[in-house]
Amino acid sequence: MEIASVSKRNGKFVEEGYAAVFISEAERVISIISGEFEPETMMINGGVFGLNDKAPVSGATVDVGFIESGSTFTTSTDNDGLFSIGDLTEAGL
């Protein structure tokens, strides 16, 4: 697969999909430099269930840690054994 090539006669060629990625990354960097950068947020959803009986574990403490930022988040499971931690950025800030 050819991503990019250079020809004296035709100039430089960059495959369309990769060009879109380059443009998107350039826009992201410009937004960081200009101070307009707003990081995308994510959510972690999960559940805690018994190993043998597969029953939901209500009230279990769930700790989520991010190595890069050192941030940690703690929550508890609901009556169905489910938990959710929201408003996280890529680095867990």
Number of domains: 2
Sequence of secondary-structure elements: EEHEEEE
User: pLDDT below 50 for ≥5 consecutive residues: which ranges?
Assistant: none
* Beta content: 25-35%
| Class from secondary-structure proportions | alpha+beta
GO molecular function, one term: carbohydrate binding
Protein name: Carboxypeptidase regulatory-like domain-containing protein
InterPro entries: Carb-bd-like_fold
Give the helix/strand layout.
Blueprint: E1 4-7, E2 11-14, H1 16-34, E3 42-47, E4 61-65, E5 72-76, E6 82-88
Antiparallel strand pairs: 1-2, 3-6, 4-5
Structure report:
The chain has two domains: 4-34; 42-88, no CATH class. With 93 residues, it is α+β, with helices and mostly antiparallel strands. It has one helix at residues 16-34, and strands spanning 4-7, 11-14, 42-47, 61-65, 72-76, 82-88. β4 (61-65) and β5 form a beta hairpin. The chain has one helix and six strands. The strands form three sheets. The chain has a two-stranded antiparallel ribbon. The protein has a two-stranded antiparallel ribbon with strand order 3-6. It has a two-stranded antiparallel ribbon with strand order 4-5. It comes from Marinobacter salarius. This is Carboxypeptidase regulatory-like domain-containing protein. GO terms for molecular function: carbohydrate binding.
